[in-house]
Amino acid sequence: MSHHHDDLYKIDKGILSFVLFFANYKSVKLRASFNYQDVVMPLALWALTLSAFAIGTTEFVIVGLVPTIAADLGVSLPSAGLLVSLYAVGVAIGAPILTALTGRWNRKIVLMSLMGLFVIGNLLAWQAPSYKTLILARILTGLAHGVFFSIGSMIATSLVSKEKEASAIAIMFTGLTVALVTGVPLGTWIGQHFGWHATFLVVSALGLLALIGSAILVPKNLKKSIPATFKEQLQVIVKPQLLLVYLMTILGYGGTFTAFTYLAPILEQQTKFAPSAIGLIMLVYGVSVAIGNIWGGKLADKRGPISALSIIFSTLSVILLLFTFTMQSKIAAVLTILAWGAFAFGNVPGLQIYVVKQAEKYTPNAVDVASGLNIAAFNIGIALGSIIGGSVVENMSLQDTAWIGAVISLMALAVTRYSGLRDKRALKTS
Predict the structure, then answer these.
(1) For residue 2, how many other CB atoms are within 10 A of its CB?
(2) How confident is the model at residue 315 (pLDDT cuts 50, 70, 90)?
(3) Cβ contacts of 143 within 8 Å, gap of 6 or more
(4) Neighbours of 193 (CB within 10 A)
(5) Nearest to residue 253, comparing CAs of 138, 409, 58?
(6) How many Cβ atoms from other residues are within 10 Å of residue 361's Cβ?
(7) Is the pTM of this model over 0.70?
């Protein structure tokens, strides 16, 4: 067993680290109890946290800016929504392929190159004269994002002693959570007051700050772990037990992002909120996401991943269905969004614990790969959801994105129940 756990601290962990923060929230809190030494983690770790904050902000801030960008570039809402999908496609492709390709490079050089690519991508978005340039900028930044979370976790753990590894990853991933809570609403507010170009300029400045911080603070001689080859990555993809988890992740996020991609236009056109209120509502959503993550981790710990995910997906379906009707009323819409935030990302710990459990059973030599591929699945879900949402907006209406999202979440529930049944059968036969 300890061999598998060593595996988990290697490369390509992607969003696994979310779990170490949220699912082990209690133990991290107890272990870290944030005594003085734990807070004064190596300064390099804070450079990584700032990078995670900048990356998290750039991924999700576009959601608040969809109507602004559509109006400014003279494209349709679905075309602006496509900027969410294409970024996610960049992450999904970038994570496994670039991680394997850069595996033999010095870790610090990879980190610097990624943050450099990230800054260039955002500067390109800032200067984007046309929709096509903006698309290219989004794909570039997505590629950097995919690899960053793979190697960032590994660098974080190599900066501290063994017993502080979970806390180190937790601190780095706080950057991502804080981005959802503060970076996205702030970026949306900047975009509405100073134009959407300004948002990307601010994000590239953050990226540059993180790049300089990493250049100065991250040590050169970081320990390397041998990265997974394409062959090892493929082994994981052919296991039906793991494919089911990826399908749960894809459908789980697909459901949310069908409607979430178009949240800003929904609030402006259906709920009749002023554009200036969108940033504030994004803040409400972000706080709710942070609470949902912690709660989701505790639920997965207590009840096991299948039971926790069944509760989360079924509630998510009900919330999305309700949103179809509550989006017409300001108070009801905000209350629904509050509940939605808590459940939309509350499934991260459960999905991640489950993928690790299945990988330990079926692909023990590639636990880290299996876990890292879940970040690709998460982004495929985001891409598919926003593409489906775009098609719904084009052919039906903004209001229909919510109940169609609910149907996709129900599919995630069905796959979860089926996977649980398979596990029970496997137990009986073993």
Answers:
(1) 6
(2) very high
(3) 90, 91, 93, 94, 98, 117
(4) 12
(5) 409
(6) 16
(7) yes
